[in-house]
Amino acid sequence: MEDNRYPHGQKMYDLIKEVIDVTGPRLPGSQEERQGAKIIADQIERELGTAAVTEKFKTPRHACISAIPWLGWVAFVAFCAFYLSPIASLVLSTFCLLFALTHIFYYSHLLDPLFPKDDSQNVYAVIPPKSGNAKYNIILSAHMDSSWCWLHSYKNPNTMMIKTGLGVLSVVLLMILSIVTIVLEASTSISFMGLSAVFNNVSSNVHDGKDIATIVMYCLPLLCLPGFYFLTQYLSYDKKIAAPGAMDNLSGVATSIEVVKHFQQNEEEIAKDAKFIILGTGAEESGLIGAMAFVKTHKDDKDLINKNTYALNLDSFRDMDHFNVVKKDTLQFVPFDKELTELSKQAIDNCGVESHIIENPVGGSDSTAFAKAGIKTITINAQDPRPTDYYHTTNDGMNNLKIDTLEKGFEVVKELVRLIDNKYKDDASSKN
């Protein structure tokens, strides 16, 4: 049933539903992701009358967040190796931690060549300025793929961070125990090779301090097992329960199309020198692969990327009480543009909702790829930043989408474009 109170929100809702009805979840590099990209490209051409370009690239399978369950199983192997070779246990647990730090917390992609690759794609369209002479560019970006189901969030979001943190601490503990064991074996007569020998020694003299130390060292790794189990259960590879991605992030895709269409139909609202680039990125959930691919492909294209380009990353619109300006991806060590941060806050405030300036505490957004390329960028969303049972879970479907928040998201982004345009006109006047 259509809601006439929110004409833009309703159109955005209908597009999101069209994609999900056809594709369901769209995991990075999947056939469903490619289907969704085709529908979105067709929608861009239908709504904006502009040809959409599809650029293909390769995305590594299980090289980022989706590798977490595999790391849990490697940690189990490291646990078993502890009782045979502490050195092997140290090597395996250290690998788990270093991989997590470089590929899951920080998206380095150093080991991507070792992983199988799938086909993914970006979709973009250029809407030239009415004047025929672009003075500034606005990229409206949003990712088209969706996430695997995060089982801990789905079952109990209140304990998700605790379970994940326990998994990481368990890997660190096993590393420490492996190091201590190696040092003890090298500096004392205590031997940790073989459980049977240990228990034979204990049975002959239970009060021997060496035997007690040995037993303690053998028992302490057992404390790691719950954490390793939580890692193996972090997410599911089952497509049937993957996230449909209504909020994250078809809401951003639909917003970008609707905003550009509004300015096409109301060209008097902004200067005629603005060039719009609508960008739908693929494989964002694999570590921002699509945005990185777009920047790499177009870094020398001065018509798209130059000092007067503003990249507005729109990522998840659902929660009316949480309109956020994300000023930094903390773990990527990348701050976003300060001026765009202030303009975004002003845009939200101008639209009658409370604004929040936050840092992204974990993971990253496509703005990181833009910022690293020297593009002025900001990420805007309307999403509760706390763990919820609808973020990266099967609950991120149409039944959890809020049309009124979609409408307000449209208003906020439209207002931000207007403020950027005013800044451009003010800067032009001051130069004259």
Quick gist of this model?
The chain has helices at residues 7-23, 31-48, 68-82, 86-105, 151-155, 157-187, 195-204, 209-219, 225-232, 246-265, 289-298, 338-350, 366-372, 403-431; strands at 53-60, 117-127, 136-143, 149-150, 235-236, 274-281, 309-317, 323-329, 334-335, 355-360, 376-382. It has 432 residues and is of the alpha/beta class.
How is this structure best described in words?
- There is one protein chain.
- The protein is of the alpha/beta class and 432 residues long.
- It has two domains: 7-62 and 117-148 and 239-431, Aminopeptidase (3-Layer(aba) Sandwich); 70-102 and 159-235, no CATH class.
- Helix content is 50%, strand content 16%.
- It has helices spanning 7-23, 31-48, 68-82, 86-105, 151-155, 157-187, 195-204, 209-219, 225-232, 246-265, 289-298, 338-350, 366-372, 403-431, and strands at residues 53-60, 117-127, 136-143, 149-150, 235-236, 274-281, 309-317, 323-329, 334-335, 355-360, 376-382.
- The strands form two sheets. Strands 1, 2, 3, 6, 7, 8, 9, 10 and 11 form a nine-stranded mixed β-sheet that branches. It has a two-stranded antiparallel ribbon with strand order 4-5.
- A hairpin with a 4-residue loop joins strand 8 and strand 9.
- Helix 1 (7-23) crosses helix 14 (403-431), helix 3 packs parallel to helix 6 (157-187) and helix 3 (68-82) runs antiparallel to helix 9.
- The longest helix has 31 residues, at 157-187.
- The protein is elongated and about 85 Å long.
- The model has no long low-confidence stretch (mean pLDDT 92).
